Amino acid sequence: MKGDVSPPQRHILQARGADHVETLGLGPLYHAPRRRAVHSGLVRATRTRRPPIDVSAGRGLVFVSHTGQVSPSGFLPLPAGSVRVHPLTEIYRTSPVFTALRDPGLLAGRCGACEFRTVCGGSRSRAFATSGDVLAEEPWCSYVPGSFPHQDDLAGYLGAAPGA
Ligand code: SF4
Hints:
By secondary structure, the chain is mainly α. The protein contains eight helices and five strands. The site of iron/sulfur cluster has 13 residues, from helix 6.
């Protein structure tokens, strides 16, 4: 998943009185940067958040090049049309590239099987760059779908998320 501890997981564990560091098996790669960030005032030690706003390539984000070519993001060079030919809103709403990116049911591999696919979905740019398939699984994510211990709580929590 993008980031080390997702807000839904942490929220659920806190509500259950469980320690997220112990439950999720977080190690030095979590503690060292976290300590530095808290010490420098970049994050507050007790900060909690709701799930991230559902914005990623093609989902609330669009890139228009200096020649008018439209793609889902500046890191995802999949041409979806040209603003010299069609209105940007039409391309965003109807192009197969954009509509596919907004359908988490089309994701493949671990992302397709993941309970976080509606709020995360992984980096579509990285998937495309490493596999050539924009709907392939996120290659840098280490999360194993279904491994969070309180799936019922998670389903209720994510059920309120947009697109869930
Ligand atoms: S498997 Fe994909 S959808 Fe699930 S957390 Fe990882 S990147 Fe996100």
